[in-house]
Amino acid sequence: MTVTVVGIGADGWPGLAPPARTACEKASVVLGAPRQLDLLPATLGARREEWPAPMMPSLPSLLDRLGGEELVVLASGDPMFFGIGTSILRLRPDATVVPHPSSVALACARLGWAEQDTVVVSAVGRPLEAVRAALAPRRRLLVLADSGTLPGRLAALLVGAGYGEARLSVLGSLGAEHESRVDGVAASWNAPDTDPLAVVAVDCPALPDDGWLGRAPGLPDDAYTHDGQLTKAEMRALSVAALRPLPGQLLWDVGGGAGSIGIEWCRAEPTARAIAVESREDRAARIGENAAALGVPGVRVVPGRAPEVLAGLDAPDAVFVGGGVSAPGMLEACRRALRPGGRLVANAVTLEGEAALAAARAEYGGEVRRIAVSRGRPVGRYLGWKALAPVTQWVLHVGARSVSGGTRPTPDVSGVPPLTPPPWRQQ
Questions:
Q1: Eight-class DSSP state of 416
Q2: DSSP assignment of 9-46
Q3: How far apart are CA 304 and CA 334, in angstroms?
Q4: Do strands 29-32 and 343-348 pair parallel, antiparallel, or not at all (unpaired)?
């Protein structure tokens, strides 16, 4: 079977380049969504099949069923940009991809924006709240819509985030003869629902009403809803820096509290993932609320008590232990679970916690440091220093090399499966 993935735009058959047309003309089966199949000329001899629902779970069996056929899979725009192309290639590495200009390329051309300087956020099958983490003064974003209601929902989100002055442009049916554009401001947006496959451009104001700008760790404490169980801003900045967020990597935030470490790990590196482990149900629910409010709704919350609840979780690249460092087996379970090259950061404010960190450092190495922070506070008519509780921190880096022929060591937390790709890599 020959599989060719052909990108097609709203301009349909006339917009296809010769290689794409040739692939369709040679195909015995063309697979696509109804709206894509309708763009092909009636003279095309290939049998047309619509995607089943749900699409992704049935993809492997579908490709097997079409075994000896010359197959063309239609995709919107560029198949390798939030498209089906990556999933096809994962299953059929010998497949050929013939791209079409993406909706992002067309939108930037219409707006006069430099594509390399424009941030893209997809709301197709993903939470819209992720837009919050991408907001910044003067930033230009393109949001890929999942429905005709998205512009209104996006405008409300922008107003809530302090970006009510942002200018919006809704670009519908890009490339088609009936291409459309609607402009407005988030705070006064009242346009009707539009093309469900539109691209919404966001031109952020220079001075938004936003108290915590940028992705750097150390957001103000009042950016979080909490009950006092919160790693303070100064310690948060130092702790996330020690964890070193890297692309695609997974963090365990053990003893999540308000979820601030996992949240700022994900804000610092948009492709990173985090699992927050919290024993109290009210705090676990609050972590999810904070994650959505700060633009990283993908933070996964696991209720339960560590280290027992760690069994079954994907092996982490980094672990932060902010609570329960003196619990029996806690530090050992977290250290053993780390993948090669992993980082473990543990903070303690009690004598018992300090003793556990000192013992761990004596056995496994790493660095310990004591961090003291004072904040200026009113003292009568004057300003004086108020010390926060000093924190002892242990930082351990696990060697990237392993014995036993280069395979990663097996975690001692029973039942931990091998690391699986994040959802956006599986699609």
A1: P
A2: -TT-GGG--HHHHHHHHH-SEEEE-HHHHTTS-TT--S
A3: 15
A4: unpaired
Strand partners, 32: 50
What is the rounded average pLDDT of the residues 87-108? 95
**222, two tokens:** 């009042």
pLDDT of amino acid 412:
47
The pLDDT tens digits of the residues spanning 199-238 come to 999 999 999 998 767 889 999 999 999 999 999 999 999 9
Helix axes 281-293, 260-268, angle to 10 degrees: 30
Residue 156, token pair as written in the block = 């409300």
Give the burial string for 363-388 (b: 16+ CB within 10 Å, else e). Answer: eeebebeeeebeeeeeeeeeeeeeee
Could you tell me which residues come within 8 angstroms of residue 361 by beta carbon, excluding any fewer than 6 positions away?
Answer: 367, 368, 394, 396
- The span from the CA of 70 to the CA of 316, in Å, is 42
pTM of the model: 0.85
pLDDT at residue 53 in the model? 86
Per DSSP (E only), the strands in 304-354 are 318-321, 343-348
Dist. CA 319–CA 302, nearest whole Å = 14
Rounded distance between C-alpha atoms, residue 257 and residue 276, angstroms: 9
- Alpha-carbon distance of 85 to 82, in angstroms, equals 8
E strand or H helix at 49: strand 47-50
Is residue 279 a contact partner of residue 382, using CB atoms and an 8 Å limit?
no
Q: Is 105 exposed, middle or buried (0-12, 13-18, 19+ CB in 10 A)?
A: middle
Q: Where are the beta strands (DSSP E) in 282-402?
A: 300-303, 318-321, 343-348, 367-371, 374-379, 382-387, 391-397
Say if CB 120 and CB 104 are below 8 A apart: yes
What is the 3-state composition of the chain as percent helix, strand, coil, each rounded to the nearest 5?
Answer: 30, 25, 45
Q: What is the CA radius of gyration of the chain?
A: 25
pLDDT of 264 over the 50 cut: yes
Can you tell me the distance from the alpha carbon of 192 to that of 203, in angstroms, rounded to the nearest whole number?
A: 20
Decide if 56 contacts 87 (C-beta within 8 A): yes
| Terminal C-alpha separation, the chain | 22
Please give the Cα distance from 236 to 242 (Å, whole number). Answer: 10
Q: What is the pLDDT of residue 106?
A: 96
Q: CA nearest 277: which of 234, 337, 219, 214? A: 337
Which tens digit of pLDDT belongs to each residue from 10-69?
A: 999 999 999 999 999 999 999 999 999 999 999 999 999 999 988 889 999 998 888 778
